[in-house]
Specification:
single chain; alpha+beta; three-stranded antiparallel β-sheet; 5 strands; 43% helix; 30% strand; elongated
């Protein structure tokens, strides 16, 4: 499912226009992004939790040459599925 399909489904379920549904999705994603930028986690009960984790620096290998290279530390987004989402997908 892409964003347009999601907006169409939200519009149908909420009786909003597709533009209004897309604006609501955009605002939701902007809110989640803003919270993650600040280092906060976002919990949507029944769906899951978005959070930020620190990945340590490590040594990798260039697949073309086989030479080792240094991969720097960085922050990554993690998602943990909630109980209801896990049960729905089962």
């Amino acid at each position: 499912m892409n964003r347009a399909a999601l907006a169409a489904q939200v519009a149908k379920a909420t009786k909003l226009s597709k533009a209004q549904a897309d604006a609501a999705i955009s605002a939701t994603l902007k809110g989640i992004t803003g919270a993650l930028k600040k280092g906060d986690s976002v919990t949507l009960i029944g769906f899951g939790t978005y959070g930020v984790a620190q990945r340590k620096a490590r040594t990798g290998r260039n697949p073309a040459t086989g030479k080792p290279l240094r991969i720097p530390a960085k922050k990554v987004v993690k998602f943990t599925a909630g109980k209801a989402l896990k049960a729905a997908v089962k």
